[in-house]
Design brief:
The complex is a heterodimer of chains A (208) and B (119).
Chain A lengths: L1 H4 L8 H11 L9 H15 L10 H12 L6 H9 L4 H23 L46 H14 L17 H14 L5
Chain B lengths: L1 H13 L21 H12 L4 H11 L1 H24 L5 H6 L1 H7 L13
Classes of the chains: A mainly alpha (208), B mainly alpha (119).
Chain lengths: 208, 119
Amino acid sequence: MSLARLELAPRPGLGESLVPIWDRLGSAGATWTGAERVAIASVARAARLGEGSTGGLDPVAARAARTVAARPASIRRSWVDGVIAAGLDQARYVELVAVVGRVVAIDTLLEALGLDLEPLPEPLAGDPSYEIDRGARLGRAWVPMVGGASIVQALSLVPAENAELERLHGPLYLTFEEMADPHVDKGLSRPQMELVAARTSAHNECFY
Amino acid sequence: MVAHTGLLSWSAQATETPIDLRAVTDPSVDPLLPGGGELVAFVDATLASGGSAAARRLNEALGRRALIAAAAVVGNFQMMNRVADATGMPVGTGRRRQDADLIEQLGLSRFDHLQEEAP
């Protein structure tokens, strides 16, 4: 198990913090079942490897997962609107983006360290919770958010996914509170961390 | 890119660390940070699926803890870049104004595709 092996690394708690986040990919979310979330994860992983699997998902969801995973810089508003109009409603789209993002993050971490990819979790039975934030509004971004367009609220239409993003953001990079500290050091100085962050964004052609 | 190039500039200034911001978009430029060249090479190699030699060089330059931290940061921004692009996260007018020089100096506007249609 690659995530468990991370416990051997000189970064106490990193692997331990990732295991429950990974496992929750197999549980029902707000809008997708556990089996559907694992299928989304599978399609996303395959897309980054250049494979075109649908994982048993409907074609619209599979296409969305592939695009977010492998060609995020190609995404335009018209494409998002088209995906939603084709049947993937806003909340299901936001949850799909969240699942893809987490799989790509953890896969990349393991690849970067030369470790095997973690097997996808076994799907758990259960129905989606249908818990979405009815206060989210469409503003300057392309999906509704709570309190206006903000990267820390990007997934806030589906509160559980926004919370999960924050839970992963802390151990991989910085907690939202730590971001105000230019002297923070988690194995790299803050400028070194930001060089890595900015260069990754450049590689991905992500303007934000 | 704008947000974290801005945070790179801010944190370097706050910690009195020399930095050449051009290294963000031009890997031939020495970032001037300790292990900076190795960090850039590590990001590029990881995202090109060929990271083992670059990881070894980064490990030699900065140590295992730094290597793991760098891998974790790359992973995080693989996620955050997708979240930003897929939700159409705009760079706010305040940040655009604040980082106008940086955006121009590095030519970052060429990556601003939020208003465009895909080719």
